[in-house]
Amino acid sequence: MRTFLLRVLVASQWGASLALASGCGPHVESGGSSNPPEGASSASGGGGEPGPPDASAPLDPYPDPTCVGPVHDDDFGYHGQCCYKVHCAAPVGGACPAASDAWPHLDDLPPGSGSCTCDGDGEGGAESIEGPYANRTASDPASCCYLVGAIGCDGRPLLVGGEPRVAPLAKAPSAWSHTALRRFERALAETDLGELAPAERRELARRWAERGQNEHASVASFGRFALGLMAVGAPPQLLEAAHRAALDEVRHARLALAIASAYAGEPVGVGPLPLHGALDDIGSLEALTLAAVVEGCVGETLSAIEAEVAAYAAQPPAVRMALQAIARDETRHAELAWAFVRWALATGGAGLRARVAAAFARALDQVASEPPGSAGRDLPPSHGFLPDGELHRMRQQAITDVLRPAAAALVAAQFPSTGREFSGPCGNVVLSASTTYLST
Description:
By secondary structure, the chain is an alpha+beta fold. The chain has helices spanning about 1-10, 180-190, 200-230, 235-265, 285-315, 315-370, 390-410; strands at about 65-75, 80-90, 115, 130-135, 145-155, 160, 165, 170, 270, 420-425, 425-430. Strands 1, 2, 3, 4 and 5 form a 5-stranded antiparallel β-sheet that branches. It has a two-stranded antiparallel sheet with strand order 6-7. It has a two-stranded antiparallel sheet with strand order 8-9. A hairpin with a 2-residue loop joins β6 (about 160) and β7 (about 165). It starts with a helix and ends in a 9-residue tail after the last strand. The relative contact order is 0.15.
């Protein structure tokens, strides 16, 4: 839970590094392996080695940025090569932080979906960050430079009038009932369902179909969010992240409905999604922000935690693969929501801040007051769904350990009217000169 808290706190500080929070690989928090990228020399104080940085140690000049390793176009969202860019930051305490400590001090890394740190254990041995290196412009105050590697990556509810909107299920041959992911489809075809009772299979088919409906509706939710971002003049990086997230949700829906079809023994797809009223108040910053609080900051943070826990318990490889992909993507989607709300609060002022605080309070109180479900509906957790009692306890812990502290920190953060304007891949955003990230 502490990891999730750190991630949403970092995400909610627009302009701070979200590379830590948006990694696809399993070693994001630790900084990856010790293998340097091809063409990159090892630098003093870098590589994530322990111990405080040595202010007197000479820094090697940074190498030219490069792309390393294979070109990916795989089943679960890695696209392209691991490619490095140079990012420079000011010294901290008179010294350049070690690579493993440098993330929060790099201002211009992208928020939200669409950019994942390179996996240190992946093919090619690429590491997420290398350095520090000496700046080529000695007079620049941002004199601690790092090579930062990234690779492209591919449940947010659709609420209309406060009620979730989904498309009806369709039991007929449908493109939604299978995927184009060969490794997943092979694993799904090899799944042995013979040990399940017929009633369990029917219930699992129903639950996975319901999950598919919700993921399908999330595509529309992000489409509406993207239109709202344009209507309120949000920075382009948020818009890019929203579109990438919508593509993620298309993949999630197909994964869930393919699994539902396997359990049902027949194709399960979705029909037309009713959208009447879904675009009301599309140009309202307040409406867009309050929706992001409920659908993204609360809903998707809980969904990401739930999917991650369920993936650990899953036994069929296809189910585990789907849940791992969903958990990874939903975490980035939640981070996008926190980053947007941070930007909106800086734009909308004190009045919006009060309404956001009230929206967090209502949403968290509602989730916290929900009783555990009926134990009679519990299914073997090895097939993707946590027992109702465990799910209730997990949500209570997430509210206490992650959502309430993160919401309080976000609403209490100061957004001064004066500050430096940051111009970079995140767009133009006014940041406080003294606080660019929130330490936990």
